[in-house]
Amino acid sequence: DPKFKLRNVDVSYGADRAIKNISLDIGRNEVISFIGPSGCGKSTFLRCLNRMNDSIDICRIKGQLMLDDEDIYHSKRDVVELRARVGMVFQKPNPFPKSIYDNVAYGPRIHGLANRKSDLDDIVENSLRKAGLWNEAKDRLDSIATGMSGGQQQRLCIARAIAVSPEVILMDEPCSALDPIATARVEELIAEMSESYTIVIVTHSMQQAARVSHRTAYFHLGHLVEVNETNKVFTSP
Ligand code: ADP
Ligand code: ADP
Question: ABC transporter domain spans which residues (predicted)?
Answer without folding.
Answer: 4-237
